TrEMBL record:
<protein>
    <submittedName>
        <fullName>Unannotated protein</fullName>
    </submittedName>
</protein>
<dbReference type="InterPro" id="IPR029032">
    <property type="entry name" value="AhpD-like"/>
</dbReference>
Length: 312
């Protein structure tokens, strides 16, 4: 089970392990295992169903997991967690008006770490399925969720932010493509702040707001084949269970090398952290008009800057 990130992005893989250990320390391990397995079912991820467990569940719970709403094998707390997990995976925009209130009542202070765990389980498994197709290897959470070394933050969000920074330090893919990829994911998850942000690097590389503001960037002109393939990869990863057909596989592998594909997929995971604020309804834009301008600094951190950073 050779995860290409072990070669192309070892810091990302290591940071993922720390983040997973942090959420396991912060959450009920039975809830995490129920969520891990249910996410795998929803994403048609058979490999994950064979992977190392994150906690203990009963044989009956395992057998009746797909029918949990009507099964008495699950208590109300577990059902609340599973309802939240399903909505998070299927359509995160429905969490706030849907299961969040009941889940908060059932989980209490654990709701934050549990949603952070759902991000890792959902997007992590989506990435596994994509990388498995692109690399020809079978990848599951066994390659990235275990073996953490060093200090484990008590706050899982601290660990997740460190992972996002590790991805931010990957800089092989051109900034315009990465910005279009970010914005495509933002539109899919309806992240208001994400949509109000513009990348200084992309603007300074020649992108304009007609391109970045378009629902379909190809409608503004001719996009490079590599960029179009990257945007199609976003859709293939996040619209329903991840599926990459042979035609898209061919376009991606013709356009990008292994390190660039790993960066693109990792960057999609970085951006999809927006599912956490969207789930809680705290994704408001911080500007009332115009755009918030951001750069990724040398440490991989995202920093808000003023318009003077633009060259034009």
């Amino acid at each position: 089970m050779a995860d290409p990130r072990a070669v192309e992005a070892p810091e990302v893989l290591g940071a993922l392990g720390v983040a997973c250990e942090s959420v396991r320390q912060a959450c009920d391990d039975t809830l995490l295992e129920l969520a891990r397995r249910r996410v795998a079912m929803l994403l048609n991820n058979d490999a994950e169903l064979q992977a190392k467990a994150w906690g203990e569940i009963s044989e009956r719970q395992n057998a009746e997991l797909s029918s949990w709403p009507t099964s008495d094998a699950f208590d109300e707390r577990q059902k609340a967690a599973l309802a939240l997990a399903e909505q998070f995976v299927i359509d995160v925009t429905g969490v706030l008006a849907g299961p969040l209130a009941a889940s908060f009542g059932a989980l209490g202070a654990e709701i934050g770490p549990f949603v952070q765990a759902l991000y890792l389980l959902d997007v992590g498994q989506r990435v596994d399925l994509v990388l498995s197709t692109l690399s020809g290897e079978t990848i599951s959470s066994e390659s990235w969720a275990w073996g953490a070394t060093g200090e484990i933050p008590a706050d899982p969000m601290v660990a997740i932010m460190a992972m996002l920074a590790a991805v931010g330090r990957l800089q092989a893919v051109d900034p315009i493509t990465k910005e279009l990829v970010r914005l495509r994911g933002a539109r899919l998850h309806e992240c208001r702040r994400c949509l109000s942000v513009r990348s200084v690097a992309a603007l300074n590389a020649g992108a304009d707001d007609d391109l970045l503001g378009a629902d379909d960037p190809s409608s503004t002109g001719t996009l490079a084949a590599a960029t179009t393939a990257a945007l199609d990869l976003v859709d293939a990863t996040f619209v329903g269970p991840p599926t990459i057909n042979q035609e898209l596989f061919g376009r991606l592998t013709q356009s990008y090398g292994s390190s660039e594909l790993v960066e693109l997929v990792s960057y999609m995971m970085r951006n999809a952290c927006n599912k956490i604020p969207v789930a809680f309804g705290v994704d408001d834009a911080i500007v009332e008009e115009g755009f918030e301008y951001q750069v990724i600094d040398a440490s991989g951190e995202t920093v808000t800057v003023d318009a003077s950073a633009l060259r034009n």
